[in-house]
Amino acid sequence: MKKSILNYLVAALSMLLLASCASNGYKLENSVNTENLRMAGRDPIPHVIVQPGYPRKAIEEKLSGWVRLEFFIDDNGVPVDIKVAESHPGDVFVKSALSVFKHWKFKSEPIFKEKLATYTLEYQQ
Q1: If DSSP codes are grouped into helix, strand and coil, which group holds residue 118?
Q2: Per residue in 58-90, pLDDT tens?
C-alpha cells in the first residue's frame, strides 16, 4: 500500500515539474536515439529534473533552440560523462543545459551503464 502511494506521489510530482517547464517558456523532450536502446525497448526515465534557466542573450534576441546531450547513467541514477552531441543555435543554450543536467537523476538500470543515451532539452519562447 505504501509503495503504491509513493509511486502515485512521484508520478504526480513529475507531471507538475513537466507542466511547470512548459509554462516557463521551454520544454524538455526525451529523445533517446541510440539504436541499441530502441531495440531494448527502454528509455532512461528521469525522476529528478532541475529546470534550466533561459540565457539572457536568448531572451534579448528572442532565440529558441535546443541542446542534445549524450551520457551514461551511474549506479545512483546520475548522468555521467555528459557531452554535447549537438546544439542550435550555436552554443547559446549549452552552458544552461550542462549546468543543470548533471543534477538530474534517472531510474538506474544496468543497461544505461554501458549504453549511451541522449536527451534533448528544447528552449522555446
Answers
A1: strand
A2: 999 999 999 999 998 988 899 999 999 999 999
